[in-house]
Design a protein that fits this description.
Layout lengths: L1 H9 L10 H16 L3 H13 L3 H13 L7 H20 L3 H13 L7 H13 L3 H13 L7 H12 L4 H13 L7 H13 L3 H13 L7 H13 L3 H13 L7 H13 L3 H13 L7 H13 L3 H11 L4 H4 L16
Length: 349
């Protein structure tokens, strides 16, 4: 019965409540504040309360949380269900000038959620919300100009929109603007400025920014080369499960760069990356099992990892398997003056 009441309220149909409309608005405000602070448990609690009180935008927020798995288990079906509940009320509020409703209406048109996919219409609604100062809308419209989706591609306009959101402290925009300075798209290339922007987003826990800044410290681009700082940033991103960071941190432990050489730790990181489908990590871990480096020697496990790596597109693993099928030993063909192939692996950009 409770679920049915929420559906009606998200559609903007009043069925009676012990709370005022102001209470719903306040719950929504608190939820949005918690969401931006990445306190997803609190955000979900507040949005749920606001949804029960008739706030359609809160229903859309809940849909986004199920879509992304923020504070709840990721569930695409439930996400679509909540977007469906929200759509009519969100559209009505957007047309009446509600900025957050305009943002979510644009988002639903962009993704084709509870509405027919329409990128041009999404851009129109993002623009309305962006002009009113909504930082998520500014960032998303920037992405559309960056990619040429629903609008003509315009890197300079994208950078301008990212900058507007960055001035409000929005970490995704900080990262996106950093990428543009890193690549010299829409702005003059400036590695130092890119590093500054990545740093701001990284401080807020944005995993891609942590990873990108780690690369800059590793290669000495825009900052002084610092392997220890690179390892620390890769570690922060790896703790969030970021596959590329798991791999690169594994490489650093393998070579003793920025951290004491630790083959066992390297093997564990490669294993985690391999479990996410990283073909290079599968291959290096296979080598480690073959040599008994950081793990107990196990040729069968090594062969299995080489097969998986080859199937995932790692050419070196395929070469090894081809040679093994000819009854050639690893030492006759795979070794070289630098040691095994694994020793030649490098931190990836």
């Amino acid at each position: 019965m409770k679920k049915f009441v929420i559906v009606l309220l998200c559609l903007g149909i009043w069925v009676g409540s012990a709370f005022s409309a102001g209470g719903a608005d306040e719950l929504y405000r608190q939820g949005l504040e918690a969401y931006m602070a990445q306190d997803y448990g609190r955000a979900f609690e507040c949005f749920s309360g606001a949804a029960e009180e008739g706030n359609a935008v809160a229903c859309a927020e809940i849909g986004r949380m199920y879509e992304r798995g923020y504070g709840v288990e990721e569930d695409a079906g439930l996400a679509l269900e909540w977007f469906g509940r929200a759509f009519d009320g969100v559209k009505k509020s957007a047309e009446a000038g509600d900025v957050r409703a305009q943002f979510f209406l644009a988002r639903m048109y962009y993704n084709g959620q509870a509405a027919e996919l329409d990128r041009a219409l999404a851009a129109e609604w993002f623009l309305k919300a962006a002009d009113a100062g909504d930082m998520e809308a500014q960032n998303n419209l920037g992405v559309m100009y960056n990619l040429g989706e629903g609008v003509e591609r315009d890197y300079a306009r994208a950078a301008e929109l990212y900058r507007e959101a960055t001035e409000q402290g929005y970490m995704q925009a900080q990262y996106n603007l950093g990428v543009m300075y890193d690549r010299g798209e829409g702005v003059e290339q400036d590695y130092t400025r890119a590093a500054e922007l990545y740093g701001k987003a990284a401080e807020q826990g944005y995993v891609q920014a942590q990873y990108s800044l780690a690369l800059m410290y590793y290669y000495g681009e825009g900052v002084e080369r610092d392997y220890a700082q690179a390892a620390e940033l890769f570690r922060k991103a790896a703790e969030q499960g970021y596959m590329q960071a798991l791999y690169n941190l594994g490489v650093m432990y393998y070579h003793g760069e920025g951290a004491e050489q630790d083959y066992a730790q390297a093997a564990e990181l490669f294993r985690k990356a391999a479990e996410q489908g990283d073909a290079d990590a599968m291959y290096i871990l296979g080598e480690m099992y073959y040599d008994g480096q950081g793990v107990e020697q196990d040729h069968d496990q090594a062969a299995e990892l080489f097969r998986k790596a080859a199937d995932a597109g790692n050419n070196e693993a395929q070469i090894f398997l081809d040679e093994a099928s000819k009854n050639l030993t690893k030492s006759t063909k795979i070794k070289n003056d630098e040691g095994s192939i694994g020793n030649r692996q490098e931190v990836r950009k």
